[in-house]
Amino acid sequence: MTISLKALAQLILANVETLESACAKHGTDYPSLDDPFAPSALNADPVAANASRVIVGAAAQLIATVRDPIEMLQDHCSSMYTAAAVGFVNSNDVADILQVSGPQGLHSKDLGKKIGVDASLTDRVMRYLATRHFFREVEPNIFANNKISSLILKNKSLSDIQADPASKYDLSPGAAMAGHFAEEAFMGSQSIAQYLKDPGPYQSPFNMAIKDTTNIFAWFEQPDNVWRGRRFVTAMKGGGERFPPEIFTSAIDWKALEPGSTVVDVGGNVGSVTLPIAKSFPHLHYVVQDLEHVIPEAKEFWKANLPEALSENRVELQGIPLSNLFLI
């Protein structure tokens, strides 16, 4: 059955009204796209979250229906340029530079000088992203952060970033995620079509792209890539933290497990998913497993968030040697 344009528009409007009601309940306005991201009560409101998902889905279908299909095809096929542009501004700390300039923004020629790129090229990249609502163009050639670009702020001073580039993603899961997708994942994506037809000796498209049979975790441990592995850990940690705890605590009937039963989080990174479960169900014993180099950070994570779980041996952190890790 064909869904009418009006039905999609009405679905969007109905859920916008639901969002506005949620805002009224929490005594807040809906966050502006022009403002930096700031967590609010809306982020933890399941009604608001569901309304947002419905709006996005209906709006995407409405756009796909009314837009010229040739334009849709071009947009999808050229999306790698968006990933590449985000990777460029992320690796060059553009959001952090703009943060220093404040809401009035910074001219592309000055931004170009700071990152060592010709002003005309900087301007083209920034406008490309601004027209896709990543950054905002305050005035012609003057750019500032917005809600989306603020997520790749490194949460460190520019001097600290320059002093220790390997650690610059440690406090920013958003920047870490963007960096991983724009680089490692982007590299692998280029070989997907060939890999699906004939994988040869490679276990993933990424391996095919780098022409090396080493799995990505071993690749992360190579001297030149240790910082990438460090970035990946931060990205995965942030991935778990962005979801409401109820997703994990209500996934199964944890109360039905006998006291002392062991729950193993395989490949659990620092344990950000296990944490809310351990807080809600202290009668269980938890084991968080990941590669050995992740464990020191995992210890610091638990010391900061639930230290008694470690001291009472309710949570055990296990480093698994890469040679013993079974990877499909």
TrEMBL record:
Domain O-methyltransferase C-terminal: 251-308
Keywords per UniProt: Methyltransferase, S-adenosyl-L-methionine, Signal, Transferase
SUPFAM superfamilies named in the record: S-adenosyl-L-methionine-dependent methyltransferases, Winged helix' DNA-binding domain
Alphabetized Pfam families for the sequence: Dimerisation (PF08100), Methyltransf_2 (PF00891)
Signal peptide limits: 1-24
Keyword Protein biosynthesis among UniProt keywords: no
Family annotation (PROSITE patterns): SAM_OMT_II
Highest taxon of the lineage: Eukaryota
Gene3D superfamilies membership: Vaccinia Virus protein VP39, Winged helix-like DNA-binding domain superfamily/Winged helix DNA-binding domain
O-methyltransferase dimerisation domain span: 93-154
PANTHER family assigned to the protein according to its UniProt record, in alphabetical order: O-METHYLTRANSFERASE CICE, PUTATIVE (AFU_ORTHOLOGUE AFUA_4G14580)-RELATED
Protein name: S-adenosyl-L-methionine-dependent methyltransferase
